[in-house]
Amino acid sequence: MTYKTPARFLALLAFFCGMAAIGYGQEEEKPPSWWDTWELNGFYELRGGYRTRNDPFEKDMSIMETRLQLDATNYTDWADFKVKGDILGDLVLEEAEFDLREANIFTRPTDYMDLKIGRQILTWGTGDLIFINDLFPKDYQSFFIGRDTEYLKAPSDAGKVSFFNELANVDFVYTPQFDPDRFVTGERLSYWNGNMQSLAGRNAIVRTDKPDRWFRDDEFAVRVYKNIDNYEYALYGYWGYWKSPGGQTAGPVPQATFPDLNVYGASVRGNVGKGIGNIEFGYYESADDQSGTNPLVNNSELRFLVGYSQEIGRDFTAGVQYYVEHMINYGNYLESLPSGPARDRDRSLLTLRLTKLFLNQTLTCSVFTFWSPTDKDAYIRPNINYKVTDDMAVELGANIFFGDYPNTTFGQLENNSNIYTAIRYTF
Amino acid sequence: MKSLWSLLVMPVLLPVVAVAQAEPLTDVEVIVNKANLVAYYQGDDGKATVNMTITDSKGQERNREFTILRKDVAEGGDQNYFVYFLKPADVRKMGFMVHKHTGEGKDDDRWLYLPSLDLVRRIAASDKRTSFVGSDFLYEDVSGRALHEDAHELVQTTDTSYVIKNVPRKPEAVEFSYYTVTIDRKTFVPMKMEYYDTNGRLYRTIESTEVKEIQGFPTVTKSVVKNLNTGSTTVMEFSGVQYNTKVGDIFTERYLRRPPREAIR
Known about the structure:
The structure holds two protein chains of two kinds. By secondary structure, chain A is mainly β. Chain A is built from three helices and 23 strands. Chain A has a single domain, classed as Beta Barrel (Porin), CATH 2.40.160. Chain A has helices at residues 6-26, 140-145, 330-336, and strands at residues 39-51, 61-75, 80-90, 95-110, 113-120, 156-163, 169-175, 191-193, 198-200, 208-209, 219-228, 231-241, 247-248, 256-257, 260-272, 275-286, 301-313, 316-327, 346-358, 363-372, 377-387, 392-403, 418-426. Chain A is globular and about 70 Å long. By secondary structure, chain B is mainly β. Chain B has a 13-stranded antiparallel sheet with strand order 6-5-4-3-2-1-13-12-11-10-9-8-7. Mean pLDDT of chain B is 86; it is low at 1-21. The interface between A and B is large, with 45 and 37 residues.
């Protein structure tokens, strides 16, 4: 929601104009001036999709939008500049939106240090569409309605400083004001509402009580990593908040909350047999409810992932993952659970990705499947993308949810199953 | 020599070894090793901008443009490459990093960086005979085919060239039954490669159509591959070729995410 706040955008814009002025001031020689060397790229896209099931709480249209992305880059002797934003006409929400995806300055002040400040997309960790130690904001709403995978990552307003040396490399990311996920709110995707003990959507849009004080409700993330014989080892730390609602306030009109969360984890990735293997785990310390007795706050968890991918034919790759979320104080959780169905102690998930390229790699057919044997639900993402020319691509895909129960991660989304198509012109 | 790498980027390298080689060589292993060594391991590193035009049988064109960097890890041994995409627009600023391993049975390590997701992906591909960026060049043409993968036979020596026949030791792993390479006797630049299928029919050719001397090294600046089965042709043109740029150890995640400016501009 913050992305629509004009004040914030204006602040960033002003910041950039300020930086631009500094950059401009440094130019002694006339041509080419800093203003003349901007490179502009982007794309224009039409994307539309419909629900395949009737959803009493939402429109039949799951996605219907035109999008113009503009990506402007420039550089001086000392820094790179990037501003990337999407102008979006959204017929589902019936609104126009400007989504500033990136607005940052990158500089490499010394041989052993990189610095990137501003709005940016941040990613680390080893999972494929599963994130344990990557606690940068995700946009699950975009993911579920069939936008390009690029939009699964929401931007952070942050500073990232990286140090490189023989011993190990270190990334620090500081986010001065908490950046939550763009999660399912009921506005365009229906969900399980635990308070109502039923599915809900536009009749019960999630209200949130979000930490939003600058420099006080902040987030800090660190990664220490090293490559030894092309096995990539990493340690992670995160001090912030549950990124999607991890609790709620008490009272007659509960608001979703983002309780304190600290995460400590590690990962390894490297060659295993003919393919690539990865292992990652994280300890999710729900700092506001260490004992797990507060029903209004998520319990602490251990999360574990193991994955393997391999080429199984020409231009044909398969990837499998096993993932589990293990609740730490399960007994306390059961005892303090007010009502409604309890979750299992372990939520496990298996994923399978198959990707095959055809027609000189211009046609990509892929399917990604999540299946949870514990929740008895599944999520299938088939996608076909064809590059008609270097500049134009057409796409057809679907998001299909199944579940035995209406309250599980994917089961609750069953009525949001959708099929979509898109055409994109890149420049 | 068998690898296109020699045609393409390595050309960098070829010092004019055979200036006055009046007497032709007769030992095929010597020729092959010499060409291989000359092609792969001259200079410490090389850099070029590559322009690729892929034309299918219907005449539809697709273009690729990227900067490629190479640095030898060990003389006659492993090498690192870095490919930084400039065109088409949808792959712009994508980075591709390869740690090539020449040891028998050892796969290359490959990474891909997707800037819009800020994602460093490890690539599981091990089949080297797949298309490189959708062109008629195969990954192996660009990254190299190890000498020990084929048996070599000197089938012809002319005034200007040697013709070598190469038969794969593991025929089930490749789509050809053999291929011939025509090597320039003076420069040891492979001028033409011809691939034959299991019926003995020619189905694929790679030709060095332009060779220039750069920094004293004969350099292939234009190379054409034709797939006679599909009617598709790819022309690869090299510009801005430089050798011994003294590029540092940039073949790490840091520079995959953001390459050093001097390396890509």
